[in-house]
Specification:
Blueprint lengths: L5 E3 L9 E6 L2 E6 L1 H19 L1 E4 L1 H10 L4 E4 L5 H13 L3 E4 L4 H7 L8 E6 L5 H4 L5
Parallel strand pairs: 5-6
Antiparallel strand pairs: 1-3, 2-3, 4-7, 5-7
Helix pairs in contact: 2-3
Length: 139
């Protein structure tokens, strides 16, 4: 078993999307691809929060799109449909990438290191992160 794919049961208690396998009396769990990609997105997002420039929220995201400063937009999956389509339309006009975050606004806020909900996030400067090159290609 590769140590990068398998995690002992004690360490995997807080991970989502796991499959349990028993081998030599020990329970090992394999992390799914969806969970791995979510972890990498969250890690890249944390790097943007530390070293880049961004704006949180629907209104400020639209402002950065209208000014042409935005490089990437992240939208929570429970964002209202009308609001989501409006952001996507502005992003299409600004030729900006859009990523639909695989979590609700609580999870997007937590991934940004905030204690409040965030439905839209506009990244204007990625800093040291490669989030702009990696995310739009995954859609």
């Amino acid at each position: 078993f590769g140590s990068s794919q398998w995690v002992k049961e004690e360490k995997a208690a807080d991970l989502a999307c796991l499959c349990a396998i028993t081998y030599n009396g020990h329970v090992y769990e394999k992390q799914s691809k969806a969970s791995k990609s979510a972890d990498s997105i969250n890690a890249r997002l944390q790097l943007v929060m530390k070293s880049g420039k961004y704006s949180l929220g629907y209104k400020t995201s639209l402002k950065t799109l209208r000014q042409g400063k935005s490089k990437l937009i992240l939208i929570a999956n429970n964002c209202p449909a009308l609001r989501k389509s409006e952001v996507e339309y502005y992003a299409m006009l600004a030729k900006t990438g859009v990523h639909h975050f695989h979590g609700d606004n609580n999870e997007l806020g937590t991934a940004c290191g905030r204690y409040y909900r965030v439905s839209c996030l506009s990244i204007t400067d990625p800093g040291d992160s490669d989030i702009i090159r990696s995310l739009p290609g995954q859609e």
